[in-house]
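Folding Problem: From Residues to Backbone Shape
Fields: amino acid sequence; protein backbone structure tokens
RECORD BEGINS BELOW THIS LINE
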Amino acid sequence: MKRSDTIYLDHASGTNLLPEVKSCISGWLDSGVANPSSIHQDGRRSAAGLDDARLSIAQVLGCKPSEIMFTSGATEANNLAILGAAEALQSKGRHVITNKTEHPSVIESYKSLEKNGFQVTYINCDENGDIDPEDFRASITEKTILASFMWVNNETGLIHPIEELARIAHEYGVRLHCDAVQAFGHIPIDLQNSPLDSLALSGHKLGTPAGIGALFVRKGHAISHQSFGGSQEQNVRAGTQNHLGTTALATAIEYHAEHLKLNEKKYFELNAQLQNQLKDLPDIQINRNGNLYTPNILNCSFHNIDGEALFIRLDMKNIAVSNGAACSSGSQAPSHVLTALGFDENLAQASLRISMGIETTKQEIDDFCGELRQIVHAIHRETT
């Protein structure tokens, strides 16, 4: 089935290729490719292409090209930043901090550290999933070396006070890593004036093919390599670089930086339209409180609804939404984010993450809400 046959509202999981990226790929395919590590002319041209992509991304983010590493995606970037920093810093202490609502690539990295003798503090969040900076401050000890918090929650769209958290970390000499996958393209990022020490990005959330990401690591902040082989990416991340992916990523990052305000205006309008129609559905709960959310993601839950039946019927109508991180499970499992917020299993399973992209239209929102309304009423009729 073609994407055009679907009401696709799962852009936080993965989005269509940008037209600019498609054009970039077409040009790349015609240019001839060589291994960037090869010393012949073709290899040097490929290496120059990598340098151009690195420079372009650094200029958008406000950092040095040497502070950008290319990875296979944000999962690898988060793994590398967390495990690599912990290993590099462990002589100073073995206490690390994170939050229970982080992306699985962060949570699982911390579980791995825990198995290897590190002490992990998982900060409790409030009823919205937010982090109290003073709770973070209170959790820091003289043995704390690293903390990791996402900028925007990938399931609820909640914006964490990431720069305040980073400033607190620096007061105590603690390194702070940020998963910024859902932030970039929605929040201006200026690393030149930011206290963040490292930051992960993912290409397929921005309109590139899957399999490319980037990790910013501030100069002077050592991380130990977690893969072995060649000396690529400053001897930190071995393996031949994804030349096509890096070019596509640079193109996508440039696009989103240039269109941030225009796209956000559209998302705010779509979000208002969506919430206005959803609020009249029976037993619905909109999972946001206040305005500290990105407008492209809306999470809602249904009381007294079978979550599995809800998703099956949406899928049968060719409606693509999710109820959590796409990589966490191929099954209808309750979201770890919502359960961390105190939702019971039934309510967490009957929750929708509706995420919009630059191609989402007002007509799609109307069509989705109309289909959802019919499905919810049908389930209620059958169970009463």
Summary: The longest strand covers residues 144-150. The chain has two domains: 3-15+260-383, 19-255.
